[in-house]
Write a structure and sequence with these properties.
mainly alpha; single chain; Eukaryotic RPB6 RNA polymerase subunit; 43% helix; elongated; 0% strand
Length: 132
């Protein structure tokens, strides 16, 4: 089979940097066991990847998406839109799963006991400094 040149591939991928990134990703895919779409002829994986790009036997858009996903450190999570969030809050309030009422929480720190239980501490519970 004829030698693959970078010029053959640059016609398919406009940027040489992008070409290198795509070929490297495809080469990693081949090493991981992905099926080869051109004749191998005992070539190494980067050469096979360049040949596949030049012959357009693999979809470059899918390869680009795979490359971006592989390089991302933070995966985006689809968050509900504001209207959906408001609907969920309203549904939770109707179901009684809303935030606890203010009556259940103590009004200030004065009402909490030293052990943090929420009952008012009496004078007997509090030790005087120096008393012992």
């Amino acid at each position: 089979m004829a030698r693959v040149t970078v010029e053959d591939c640059v016609e398919k991928v406009s940027s040489r940097f992008e070409l290198v990134m795509l070929a490297a990703q495809r080469s990693r895919d081949i090493s991981a066991g992905s099926e080869i779409s051109v004749e191998c002829d005992n070539d190494k994986n980067p050469v096979v990847a360049l040949r596949e790009i030049a012959d357009e036997t693999i979809p470059l858009d899918d390869l680009k998406d795979e490359l971006v996903q592989g390089l991302q450190k933070h995966v985006e999570v689809d968050e509900p839109e504001e209207e959906d969030a408001m609907e969920m809050i309203a549904a939770a309030a109707l179901a009684g799963e809303g935030m606890p009422s203010e009556e259940a929480a103590p009004a200030s720190d004065e009402e909490k006991s030293p052990d943090g239980e929420g009952e008012k501490a009496s004078d007997e519970d509090v030790e005087e400094p120096g008393a012992g």
